[in-house]
Amino acid sequence: MEQRGVYIDGGESMRDAYYEVTHKYSGAVLAEVAEASDDVIEQAVAGAQDAFRRPITVNDRAEILERAAQILERDQEAVARLIAQEAGKPIKDARVEVTRGQLTLRYSALAARTLHGMEIPIRGNPGAQSRIAVTIRKPYGVVLAITPFNFPLNLVLHKVGPALAAGNTVVLKPAPATPLTALNIARVFTEAGLPPGHLQVVTGSNPDVGAKLVRDPRVRLVTFTGSATVGQIIRSQAGLRPVLLELGNNSANIVHEDADLDLAARTLALRAFGFAGQVCVSVQRIYVHRLIYDAFLSRLQAVVAKLAVGDPEDDATDVGPMISETAAERAFDWYQESLRQGARAVVPSQREGLFVRPSLLVDVAPSMRVMSEEVFAPLAGVVPYNNFAEALAWANDSRYGLQAGVFTQRLDLAWQAIQTLEVGGVIVNDSSAYRADNMPYGGVKDSGLGREGPEFAVEEMTYPTVGVFNLPVQ
Which residues form the catalytic set? Predict the structure, then answer.
């Protein structure tokens, strides 16, 4: 059986203890991966700190990121296959993730080359006519990146790429379920010419590994994608150090009476149930104008009925397994709970091991967990509304605020939604799940702090230093 070690100072290091990473469809063991011990944590952080003292030039950073994108392009099918195996993501979606990962790296290279400060207009102050002030942006140092299972390549690159572009070094703690893709990323960067210590990968299934890394004072910035509960713990432990948190959501999507119903039904079905709903901007709450409610619901049911559930390595599969038995059990429990509370399933769910079949729920109430919390599963609720203002108010009635979708042909209503919805992104005539990798991405309320997207993440991962020059007039 293949064993994989932690990735420290440019190479894999084998350890004494391992845990199994399984194929999410077949259940076969893909590899045994090292459990990081305290000495591994020490080596990783100390090595990253030492590497930060040996900075890479801006040009070299950009070229390394570009070469890494080229290597990913060369290895695209193998990387996509690995994502399908260890994450259970349908292979067609995994291929898209690898393509997006290349873009993320190229945008990171561009962000490295274009990072700049500014002149501060202080000469208008009394007695400052001979002074010039400028800012430069400087890296924080060691960045800790804690990443989720659902985008084991691209969400890792959204942290590692900008951090390296800014001149930081990175200690990466990937999700326990998907460490193999992260270890492959380290190999890609080494091949691309990244010097040892600038990217360390610490693997492990014990939550204490991430907690110990967060508490280490040599870590100067923490970037995390995951649950709101864990994000709040990280923020409390980080103290005065900056944190970037991309947390949960229960995305609202509004279908107005003038919407293209076929477009809305097709888009929302794919984005509610693709990758078994395990996406933080996945479609969860669907609000539909009462005048077109029946017509839309019948279209949506028809699309959902045609979704193929099965082997993620099959090109035809739309919905694969969930990441674990625990996740599948929780999702189906919430589904059954909603039925007991009065919801009705117009597309019933079933559970078979890691598979939870897509379900559409109607007669749902805002208090039900499938509507009020992040379900992170292939479940969506459909609710009729009477007017657009009512739909906006219902969409805002959430402790989350990551992204929302609005289907309408009216520009005034689209603009009203953008102005009114308390979210980080409003997507018009597409679902809440749309993301371009160079846009600012992040939320408000319990959905997090800060913004991703390489240009914006580089700003978050650097700080300004002001230089003031006194240049007396001769």
Answer: 246, 280
